[in-house]
């Protein structure tokens, strides 16, 4: 995709492409997603009302996306990404596709979701036996496990930290995700999925892969990878795991 990045000799932000992101209002870790963007790809964010990471809130999140999509369309973005993992799978198999359809119908701009991107990433890596690590409360974790199983994946081990406050999710030290992953390297999985767009973890991907020998998928990493795939662009850096090298 060629972005309309030059107007009368003035180079705009997003001269290669512009991604519009729908993001939970209480989330504070969107910098995770920004840091993954290649040079010339800009991110433009509209927030969706969301205060607690519990099942009721995540199910509510996708019910008012059209307005946010229309606001992003004003910025002439080339792709809209619904960036909340649990929110894009909360109502089971097919929920992510319904969100995509709603966005595309509302504004006529291609769209994706975090859950869609994760499924695509797992398929690309050819991995089915998932070690799931999340900050979520049990009900959200179980919903995510069912979603993955309904798409043919086996969750061989899972851990959720029981955190429903987005501020506390963002406050978890990235090194703790590394520790949780390394403690579970021998449970029989062939891939880690560290889930949640509101945590800080992408800086740990390389270390986890190096020290466990298993590939890592995270929410923001998978979403950026999928956005770039849809935009026909390549990552600038291979520092964010095996997924960014294929």
Helix/sheet category = alpha/beta
Give Rg in angstroms: 17 Å
Low-pLDDT stretches: none
Query: In sequence order, what are the helices and strands, one letter per element?
Result: EEEHEHHEHEHEHEHHEHEH
* Helical coverage, percent range: 25-40%
Mean pLDDT: 94
User: What's the shape?
Assistant: globular
The strand count comes to 10
Largest sheet: 4 strands, parallel
**How large a portion of the residues is in β-strands, by DSSP E?**
15-25%
User: How far apart are the first and last residues' alpha carbons, in Å?
Assistant: 20 Å
Total DSSP helices: 10
What topology, given as strand order, has the largest sheet?
A: 4-3-5-6
Overall description:
The protein is an alpha/beta fold and 246 residues long. The protein contains 10 helices and 10 strands. The strands form 3 sheets. A 4-stranded parallel sheet has the order 4-3-5-6, sandwiched between helices. β7, α6 and β8 form a beta-alpha-beta unit. α3 crosses α4 and α5 crosses α10 (219-231). The longest helix is centred in the middle third of the chain and has 13 residues, at 95-107. The two termini are 20 Å apart. The model has no long low-confidence stretch (mean pLDDT 94).
Features of the shown structure:
alpha/beta, 10 helices, globular, about 250 residues, 10 strands, 4-stranded parallel β-sheet, about 20% strand
């Amino acid at each position: 995709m060629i972005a309309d990045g030059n107007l009368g000799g003035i180079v705009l932000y997003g001269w290669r492409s512009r991604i519009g992101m729908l993001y939970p209002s209480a989330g504070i870790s969107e910098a995770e997603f920004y840091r993954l963007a290649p040079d010339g790809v800009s991110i433009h964010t509209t927030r969706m009302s969301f205060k607690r990471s519990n099942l009721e809130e995540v199910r509510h999140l996708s019910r008012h996306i059209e307005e946010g999509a229309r606001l992003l369309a004003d910025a002439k973005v080339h792709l809209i990404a619904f960036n909340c993992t649990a929110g894009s799978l909360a109502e089971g198999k097919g929920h992510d596709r319904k969100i995509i359809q709603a966005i595309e119908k509302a504004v006529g701009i291609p769209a994706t979701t975090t859950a869609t991107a994760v499924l695509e990433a797992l398929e690309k890596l050819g991995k089915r036996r998932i070690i799931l690590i999340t900050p979520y409360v049990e009900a959200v974790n179980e919903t995510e496990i069912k979603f993955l199983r309904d798409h043919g994946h086996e969750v061989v081990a899972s851990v959720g930290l029981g955190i429903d406050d987005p501020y506390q999710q963002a406050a978890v030290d990235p090194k703790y995700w590394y520790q949780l992953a390394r403690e579970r390297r021998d449970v029989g999985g062939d891939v880690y999925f560290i889930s949640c767009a509101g945590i800080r973890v992408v800086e740990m991907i390389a270390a986890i892969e190096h020290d466990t020998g298993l590939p890592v998928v995270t929410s923001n990493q998978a979403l950026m990878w999928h956005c770039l795939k849809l935009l026909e662009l390549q990552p600038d850096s291979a520092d964010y795991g095996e997924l960014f090298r294929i």
